[in-house]
Sequence to fold (324 residues):
Amino acid sequence: MVVFLMGGLGGQAGEWWNLSPILGCMAPLYWCREELGPDSSKGYGLKVPFSPLSGSRAHSTATVPSKSSGKGKKVTVLYDSSEGGIAEKEETDSKRLKWEPGNWRQQLDNIREMRRKKDAPVDQMGAEKCFDSSAPPEVMRYQVLLSLMLSSQTKDQVTSAAMLRLREHGLTVDNVLQTDDVTLGQLIYPVGFWKNKVKYIKQTTAILKQQYGSDIPSTVRELVNLPGVGPKMAHLVMNIAWNNVTGIGVDTHVHRISNRLKWVKKETKTPEETRVALEDWLPRDLWSEINWLLVGFGQQICLPVNPRCKECLNRHICPAAKRC
Ligand code: SF4
Fold:
């Protein structure tokens, strides 16, 4: 119906048309051409007051912005005035229309389908799998933090093997503090930047002992103050160790795929920028799932180099798909 109306009606800018007689419907239906910028050819809006049969005096309105409409444009909203008749009110459409990427729900469903078998490295060896689930809660939380500290710039297989060696050695705050740096280095080698990580693990563990009773902090603000802990890690720790979703954990996979699928309004340069951009529109109840989904998807199909677009269910709706 929208296509018919937009293609078949004209009118001056700002002039309201009652479409009810034309369409033969009982309910009032109004259409107005609006200038959306200095050049009126840029587009126009369609306003369809609905719920006229609800008995309510005030009508809600739906707005169909033209493709070219940008944020901050004024739109006119129709109401039944208390005196009878139609009243108009201008609102800024950006207050009512929130940006979200096209097709994202279909793309997400496709990724869920491609991840159905849960057979990516992250499923077997991610941070959720690396801690000793029979240990006391504070020790489990410490192990989650350590596995995430080890995991940056490191493949899951390498992190998992290092965690196994650490756990055999005894992965508690006290044990790590009693372990000399050379031995700790041998235990975690060859994780990425292992020398720096030895230093950060020792410093962080000492802080946990002194300030947190050998437990880990329970806020993002405190976590990011620990040496070697950044925002991505902090949000993942909050989710896994404290079961509290405070933000999206954006690693290199989530960052890359979000840009390929155009899940960010403008291209982002860093994972932290991507996190902020995703959190702006992605429903909060998906924040926890999205890291797990995209990390595994990035490990198996949407690879950093030579993504397997031919096998990807999103190949027809992905802006970055290789068509040949
Ligand atoms: S079509 Fe290719 S680039 Fe797009 S999501 Fe799938 S694998 Fe990644």
